[in-house]
């Protein structure tokens, strides 16, 4: 039988390749090229514009690390917003926090939500929870229409291409600041230092121009470019490095832990240099 492989080009001359078992969906939505495939190594995989978004096998790393550092830093995260995140993985992790009364997901592309529910049920499992509100809209618009509303905002967007470009601009971080309550905080995925050092440097600069407390942390996401993935947290009041980790409860996770909470903020020197 002929083998079929998918290659994600991560730079113009480097990529990762994986053997496919089946293609479930391939569709040009109103916003992006969406594919849902079954891979030998990583299970079911969501691709947008040819980029790996999430996979059965390694999704827990990214979704836990977007959600838990902020939610165990803010003392009372009742109202949480996810910008993007249409696969539902971050929402699933947010729901593990009983203090959260309302979790709003705003993804620009309803097809991502629809196909994630159908083909990635264990990732999208929380989208029908009574505490969750799912809105199909541009996250940029939503934050400007909801000032002083959220305790925590998580930006789980695609890379700054297509509809996500505006989610990585300085105006967006001011919009996030204004949508947060006076002691709110936000976290955004901020790509990898091997191929996107300038993005990390620029986002860090832009967030520091808006927030008094800015911290960068990282995790290993094998199916993302380079595998070393960063996150940038901006906070009006609470510092994740001042949390008493002995007070953080053990919850149902496979990557995040009370021991890893502060350790994740210890950066390799070449990454430290980007965010000094
Ligand atoms: N974890 C993935 C990553 O780091 O690349 C992101 C996963 S999630 C599927 C990315 C989502 O961002 C997509 O569903 C896409 O539709 C959404 N998105 C892109 N631009 C957006 C915008 N302006 N407003 C809301 N959602 C947006």
Automatic annotation (TrEMBL):
Catalyzes the irreversible transfer of a propylamine group from the amino donor S-adenosylmethioninamine (decarboxy-AdoMet) to putrescine (1,4-diaminobutane) to yield spermidine. Gene3D superfamilies: Spermidine synthase, tetramerisation domain, Vaccinia Virus protein VP39. Keywords: Polyamine biosynthesis, Spermidine biosynthesis, Transferase. It holds the Pfam family Spermine_synth. This is Polyamine aminopropyltransferase. The gene is txxe 2194-speE2. It comes from the Bacteria. The keyword Calcium does not apply. InterPro entries: PABS, PABS_CS, SAM-dependent_MTases_sf, Spermi_synthase, Spermidine_synt_N, Spermidine_synt_N_sf. It catalyses: S-adenosyl 3-(methylsulfanyl)propylamine + putrescine = S-methyl-5'-thioadenosine + spermidine + H(+).
């Amino acid at each position: 039988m002929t083998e079929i492989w998918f290659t994600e080009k991560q730079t113009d001359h480097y990529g990762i390749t994986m053997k496919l078992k089946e293609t479930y969906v391939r569709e040009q939505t109103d916003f992006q090229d969406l594919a849902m495939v079954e891979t030998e190594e990583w299970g079911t995989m969501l691709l947008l514009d040819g980029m790996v978004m999430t996979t059965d096998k390694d999704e827990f790393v990214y979704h836990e690390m977007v959600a838990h550092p902020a939610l165990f830093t803010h003392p009372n995260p009742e109202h949480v917003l996810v910008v993007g995140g249409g696969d539902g993985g971050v929402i699933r992790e947010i729901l593990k926090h009983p203090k959260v009364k309302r979790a709003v997901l705003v993804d620009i592309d309803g097809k991502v939500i629809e196909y994630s529910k159908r083909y990635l049920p264990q990732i999208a499992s929380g989208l029908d929870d009574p505490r969750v509100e799912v809105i199909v809209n541009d996250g940029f618009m939503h934050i400007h229409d909801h000032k002083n509303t959220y305790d925590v905002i998580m930006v789980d967007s695609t890379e700054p291409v297509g509809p996500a470009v505006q989610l990585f601009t300085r105006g967006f971080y001011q919009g996030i600041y204004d949508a947060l309550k006076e002691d709110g905080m936000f976290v955004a995925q901020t790509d990898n230092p091997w191929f996107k050092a300038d993005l990390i440097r620029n986002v860090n600069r832009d967030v520091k121009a808006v927030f008094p407390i800015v911290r960068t942390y990282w995790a290993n996401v094998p199916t993302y470019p380079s595998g070393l993935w960063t996150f940038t947290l901006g906070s009006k009041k609470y510092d994740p490095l001042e949390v008493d980790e002995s007070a953080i409860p053990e919850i149902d996770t496979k990557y995040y832990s009370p021991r890893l909470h502060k350790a994740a903020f210890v950066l390799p020197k070449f990454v430290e240099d980007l965010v000094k």
